[in-house]
Every structure is written in structure tokens, then in C-alpha cells.
Specification:
By secondary structure, the chain is mainly alpha-helical. Helix content is 53%, strand content 6%. The strands form three sheets. A three-stranded antiparallel sheet has the order 1-6-5, with no helix packed on it. It has a two-stranded antiparallel sheet with strand order 2-7. It has a two-stranded antiparallel sheet with strand order 3-4.
Length: 268
């Protein structure tokens, strides 16, 4: 199969640059390491390399448009996750994480989540400064929740005898990605589904609290399923084991985040 030169994926998911002989890539089908993803036929033509283990193209996504990759991500495709996490340079992924935290903070600040929680950082005093302070406290709330979830995922992996993931078995010098870095990128990728909170902001005034609560629960359920799938990819383990780790992390995170929210509410 031949194709034109791969695009830089709009600056977000560029293919990793590597030196000959380094094994930084993985096959998106079976997850095994490969020496490269394509072979240059001429100055304008490339040929995708097949994986020696499963005999499938090592990474078919290098010829796909970004929109197709994002659709597969939303469909929880393991090959799409492997392409982004292992074969791409996620140098701007942190920007998506910041946007998502601000989105959740805004929903929380406008009481869009009041149907499933009694936590609020809105002041009853009609003061613009106090009202704005509530938004910043909401942002701290969700940033703390993100860091707690990431930290407990890593901790429970260690405590439960996490299998050695691809990141540690096949990491190399230079652009090789460590497990903590991959796990951080994975949590951000799993959070992409939270963009589905946007309809709550748009239609909040014309929706009942029950319908909003159902919407929020479905989005959070999708987030948990995405995180289980991504954890399974990063740790190279079964979905059942990933499910146990993720649920434990969520339960402990919810407990500590409740304590944090109590402190933040005293600042309103």
C-alpha cells in the first residue's frame, strides 16, 4: 500500500521523530513494538510497514484525516488510542486538558450540576467579585479532582502489582514515553467525552433537573468506560483488571474530593 506524505495532524498528534534502529513505535492492532511505521519508496511515496507478529499494517492511521481518528477515539477504538499515545507526539494535549477543566468549572459554577450534587461555590451576596471567585474555586475543585484521579490510578497500579506496560517494556532514549507520562495523556484523552457537557450549558434553561442529571450521569459513565479502555491499552492488561483499578481510583478520589470541597466552600 502506498500513500502520500503523512500530514502533521494539525499540530496536535504529530508522528514521533526517531532515529534508525530505535523501537519507539507499536503496532496499533496487537500492541507489539515495531522498528518503524513506513518505508520511503521515493521522495513523495511511502509504504506502510506490516507488523511481523500479526501481519497487519503497523499503523493505518498515518494516512487518515484527523477527523476520522477523532471519530474512532469517540468509539473507544484501541488501535486509535495506541496511535495517539504511542506513535504520536501529544505535545499539545495539555491544552485540551485545561479546556476541559475550565468547561467543568463553568458548568459547576452555573449550577448545571446541581441535579447530582449539593456542592456549590456560588455566593448568595450580589457581588461580582464573589461570584467570579466561585468560578476560580470550581476550577480548583476539578483540577484537584483530576490530579487525585491520576495519582490514585498510578498508586493502585503499583499496589495491585501492575503488569509491566508497553511504555516500560519498550521505552527508549530520546522520545521514549514513560508510564507516568502515558497515563497522564491517557486520562486527558479519556476526558474528551466531557465535551458532551456543552449541551447542558446551551439547553440548561429549557431542561428539567431530572433530564440534566441523566445527561451528566451518561457523560460520566462514558468517561469511566473510556478510562478503563485506555488503562487497558497503557498497562497492557485485561479490561476486568483495568475496571477494578479505575473504580477503586474513582471511589477514593470521590472521598478525598469531598473533603477538599468542604474546605473550598468555607472560602465562598
Amino acid at each position: 500500500m502506498t500513500l502520500g506524505l503523512p500530514r502533521p495532524l494539525q499540530g496536535y498528534f504529530e508522528l514521533l521523530r526517531h532515529r534508525p534502529g530505535e523501537q519507539k513505535y507499536v503496532c496499533i492492532t496487537c500492541g507489539r513494538p515495531v522498528a518503524g511505521l513506513y518505508r520511503r519508496i521515493s521522495s513523495t511515496v511511502l509504504k506502510i510497514i506490516d507488523c511481523e507478529k500479526c501481519n497487519n499494517p503497523a499503523d493505518k492511521y498515518i494516512e487518515f484525516e484527523v477527523l476520522i481518528i477523532l471519530i474512532d477515539l469517540m468509539l473507544l477504538s484501541k488501535p486509535a488510542y495506541r496511535h495517539i499515545l504511542y506513535n504520536s507526539d501529544c505535545k499539545n494535549l495539555w491544552k485540551i486538558g485545561c479546556i476541559l477543566i475550565l468547561l467543568e468549572a463553568y458548568c459547576f459554577w452555573t449550577d448545571a450540576f446541581r441535579g447530582i450534587t449539593n456542592i456549590s461555590y456560588r455566593s448568595h451576596v450580589n457581588d461580582p467579585f464573589l461570584s467570579e471567585k466561585g468560578f476560580y474555586l470550581s476550577a480548583i475543585h476539578f483540577l484537584t479532582g483530576f490530579m487525585l484521579l491520576y495519582g490514585f490510578l498510578y498508586l493502585f497500579n503499583r499496589l495491585l502489582g501492575r503488569p509491566l506496560g508497553l511504555a516500560e517494556r519498550h521505552s527508549t532514549a530520546g522520545d521514549g514515553k514513560s508510564y507516568p507520562r502515558l497515563l497522564l495523556h491517557g486520562v486527558i484523552l479519556a476526558s474528551i467525552g466531557k465535551f458532551l457537557f456543552i449541551p447542558i450549558i446551551i439547553w440548561r434553561e429549557s431542561s428539567t433537573e431530572t433530564s440534566m442529571a441523566i445527561h451528566i450521569v451518561l457523560v460520566l459513565l462514558y468517561f469511566v468506560i473510556s478510562l478503563v479502555q485506555i488503562h487497558s491499552v497503557i498497562s497492557d492488561c485485561s479490561r476486568s483488571r483495568s475496571c477494578v483499578v479505575v473504580l477503586l481510583a474513582f471511589i477514593v478520589k470521590a472521598y478525598f474530593l469531598t473533603r477538599v470541597s468542604t474546605v473550598l466552600q468555607e472560602l465562598v
